[in-house]
Design brief:
11 strands, 7-stranded mixed sheet, alpha/beta
């Protein structure tokens, strides 16, 4: 006779499941941001010349490939609307500044989420690859500049009617995609390496605003799940497990590489 022992679910998983089933209608107040901080970190200038800070800012602006073409209002609208729409689709009851009376009348728990700062940086790096000279056939080092646009965010999150606030940090980026391949010349019988560039453009920057707004909503959902677990664990049990909601399989999973960094 075989004896089968079935391990029960952990208290953390049970609480995570309960939150997923019961969180619909939970109120969230989003306090939007109206200024996008932007910086070009690829500034190149003659160090023999002494520039004023304003002149350096002007040089950085003129030398930028992307940020000087970014409209604050367009970028922030794409980001914020994507954030709100995703939270709504996950069952939360989302409000924005101006509807605070209705929000405050909702039952607890409810959340205040302030988009404290968004920083858009333009950067670049160089990709070095050994290729073969078409003239001599000897290996040489070839370099390609890889453009990158990075968005850093700081969210201030707290339960309404409490003084407990945490600052959540996240950073995401897009960059040129460099594909390596083999270049075979049948006539000359030579083989070399080649690099093809798939460059980012302004449409990618706009898409980044939308995608990262959605990603922030997903990670906020995970943050709320784990806050609920910590708040409702039986006394004496220390929570060492992190759960997240897999939006593709519509199921809970344990362990998550993508999560906010808690600043304080």
């Amino acid at each position: 006779m075989a004896i089968l022992l079935l391990a029960g679910c952990s208290p953390e998983r049970n609480l995570a499941r309960k939150y997923v089933k019961t969180h619909n209608g939970t109120g969230i107040m989003i306090v939007p941001l109206y200024e996008l901080y932007k910086d070009n970190l690829t500034l190149n200038y003659d160090t023999a010349i002494k520039y004023s800070p304003d002149q350096l800012d002007s040089l950085a602006w003129e030398q930028s490939c992307f940020i000087k073409h970014v409209s604050d209002s367009v970028f922030l609208t794409l980001f914020t609307n994507s954030l709100i729409n995703k939270l709504n689709s996950e069952g939360f009851d989302v409000y924005v500044d101006g509807s605070s009376d209705i929000f405050l009348s909702l039952p607890d728990p409810k959340w205040m989420v302030q988009i404290a700062q968004l920083q858009l940086n333009e950067e670049h790096m160089f990709n070095y690859t050994e290729v073969y000279s078409e003239e001599t056939g000897e290996p040489i080092t070839d370099s390609l500049r890889i453009n990158q646009v990075t968005l850093s965010s700081w969210f201030e999150v707290s339960r309404a009617n409490t003084g407990n606030k945490q600052v959540l940090f996240l950073e995401g980026y897009i960059q040129d995609n460099i594909k390596h391949g083999v270049d075979f010349n049948l006539m000359e019988g030579s083989v070399g390496l080649k690099q093809d560039r798939d460059s980012i453009d302004m449409d990618d920057v706009k898409r980044m605003a939308y995608d990262l707004g959605k990603k922030h909503a997903e990670l906020l959902y995970d943050y709320f799940i784990n806050d609920y677990i910590r708040d409702n664990l039986p006394s004496g049990i220390i929570n060492r497990k992190y759960f997240y909601f897999d939006h593709k399989s519509k199921s809970l999973k344990q362990g998550q590489k993508e999560r906010f960094d808690v600043v304080n």
